[in-house]
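Fold description:
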Amino acid sequence: MTPSSIRVALVDDQALFRAGIKMLVGSQPDLLFVGEASNGEEAVAMVAEALPDVVLMDIRMPVMDGIAATSAVLAAAERAMRKPPRIIVLTTFDLDEAATRAIRGGASGFVLKDADPEFLLAAIRTVHSGNAVIAASATRELFEHFDGRGSRAVPEAFRTLTTRERDIFDLASRGLSNSEIAGREFLSEATVKTHISRVLSKLSLRDRVQLVVYAYEHGLTG
């Protein structure tokens, strides 16, 4: 453990699965396992006490499922005026409407429960960094498959984006990575990263998964 360790918590109703994830996270020098819960209701209290940076959240649980728990955890953090954790939802299906709803509720991405352990660890680090997105292209695929779009009105904040920022927004909403956008726009990756940061800030979005959600909900997908 180091002072900069990423604090990780897990919410899942299967005790054996929780034990396995706890061991996996505990084996990493840059990760610190700080709490667990067996349902969404317990998760809200646990997160408030343990203050994890990243929460692994199962979708299907008794008492309160992962969709409701994601919204509740983020709302509690906002009320307490503390930095909200990044939430990764755990699902058993590639195309899962429940995962789509959890992402709409504020989750930063999803990972299959049977994913390779190294992929899960990379996902935790990726989401914590805020610099990349877990399966942005898969997020887009989810929304195309379960497309229950919201308001079609273009928000006023979107009109504040420059022409270049709108181009970057469009490519990011399609799930393109920074390197892919850089290649398309003949820019350096550092410049793309700066543009993405400005876009997220202007639109009050946490990460690129939320950018994909924003694009779909307002009919701004390419």
Observations:
- The chain has a mean pLDDT of 85.
